[in-house]
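Section 5: illustrative case.
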């Protein structure tokens, strides 16, 4: 069995490269042939050369001012590489998601066409005290998981709806730690989402329309080291 592990990346993730590769190296892989491929879409080649120097395959993705555009074009390069090189699965693993050694083995064990681990974003929210009327900011970890409310409609899940519920079917998920079977990749490309969202939600919607179930193992819980792009000067 051949599995391609990888993601689009950018030089802002350089500080996480060594840990990301160490996590990938420690993945339990009985009988699996695994390759790590990163597609760098930075505006220069500095990070590309850093990735190559680490000993893994690095491809150069197209640069665009829009992060959404360059990410989806880079991810489509990975899909094509999976198909052209005969991989059985694409393990989409973003550089800011830290996997545990048994993550891949547990996701493979479900034998599903599309299955994600559980991770979320630390989201700042302003809450109001019902007694004093004072407001304060809190940080909530909101899962990057979407539940199907009715055909064609999804909503962002709250942690209490999905966490520690085993393997459950969902409407969509972020693609930060998602195992995708080859036959799905053959039918569903990664395309630019014309709406406000990213290509991950569009991919999930189109995969469901093609008849595939999307699941999350809500007991495989991972750390997501997401940083606000606006603070880093990244244009969506």
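Designed sequence:
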């Amino acid at each position: 069995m051949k599995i391609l592990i990888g993601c689009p990346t950018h030089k802002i993730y350089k500080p996480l490269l060594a840990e990301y590769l160490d996590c990938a190296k420690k993945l339990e892989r009985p009988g699996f042939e695994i390759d790590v491929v990163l597609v760098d879409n930075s505006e220069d080649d500095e990070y590309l050369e850093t990735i190559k120097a680490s000993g893994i395959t690095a491809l150069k993705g197209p640069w665009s001012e829009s992060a959404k555009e360059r990410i989806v074009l880079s991810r489509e390069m990975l899909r094509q590489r999976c198909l052209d090189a005969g991989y059985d699965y694409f393990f989409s693993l973003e550089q800011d998601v830290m996997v545990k050694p048994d993550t891949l083995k547990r996701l493979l064990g479900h034998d599903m066409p599309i299955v994600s681990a559980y991770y979320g974003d630390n989201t700042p929210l302003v809450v109001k005290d019902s007694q004093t009327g004072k407001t304060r900011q809190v940080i909530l970890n909101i899962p990057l998981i979407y539940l199907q409310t009715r055909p064609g409609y999804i909503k962002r899940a709250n942690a209490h709806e999905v966490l520690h519920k085993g393997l459950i079917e969902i409407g969509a998920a972020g693609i930060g730690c998602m195992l995708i079977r080859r036959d799905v990749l053959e039918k569903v490309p990664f395309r630019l989402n014309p709406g406000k969202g990213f290509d991950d939600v569009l991919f999930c919607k189109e995969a469901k329309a093609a008849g595939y179930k999307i699941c999350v193992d809500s007991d495989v819980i991972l750390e997501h080291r997401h940083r606000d792009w606006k603070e880093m000067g990244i244009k969506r």
